């Protein structure tokens, strides 16, 4: 397996493991904002799966078909909707949806041949490889994972 593909696959496996670990955290800790005017841990989790669904449905198949990529949803709107849903639904539902969709994404990514990870793609005005696109998403994940870990460690 190419190192680029391996890096992304391992990240997603670790991500899923971390989200699973949140099932053992008291709900009140998951629902408390991570800071003044910030989302809670569960709201952060809740915003991952709509974006994973977007990548699954509106990016991967289009990237490799050569078709024009569909327009991305509005970031603020999608994030607002997903955080509201995570605030109002059962914590277990939010965690399970996040895990399930990320597992689907991981499964799709594993099927993509290693050399395809270096194919240049055009997104808006940017040209980057499929790997670079996924690495940007991974870095976004890592930012939020670090926020959640720090918050939960500080509340012990």
CATH class: Mainly Alpha
Question: What is the count of helical runs?
Answer: 6
User: If classified by CATH, what would the architecture be?
Assistant: Up-down Bundle
- Give me the side-by-side strand order of the main sheet: 1-2
What's the gist of this structure?
This protein has a single domain, classed as dinb family like domain (Four Helix Bundle (Hemerythrin (Met), subunit A), Up-down Bundle).
Description:
The chain has 156 residues and is mostly helical. The chain has one domain (3-20, 37-151): Up-down Bundle (Four Helix Bundle (Hemerythrin (Met), subunit A)). It has 6 helices and 2 strands. Strands 1-2 form a two-stranded antiparallel ribbon. A hairpin with a 2-residue loop joins strand 1 and strand 2 (126-129). It is globular, with a radius of gyration of 16 Å. The model has no long low-confidence stretch (mean pLDDT 93).
Keywords:
mainly alpha; Four Helix Bundle (Hemerythrin (Met), subunit A); 6 helices; single chain; 5% strand
Q: Which secondary structure elements does this structure contain, and how are they paired or packed?
A:
Layout: H1 3-21, H2 27-31, H3 41-65, H4 75-88, H5 91-111, E1 120-123, E2 126-129, H6 130-154
Antiparallel strand pairs: 1-2
Helix pairs in contact: 1-5, 1-6, 3-4, 3-5, 3-6
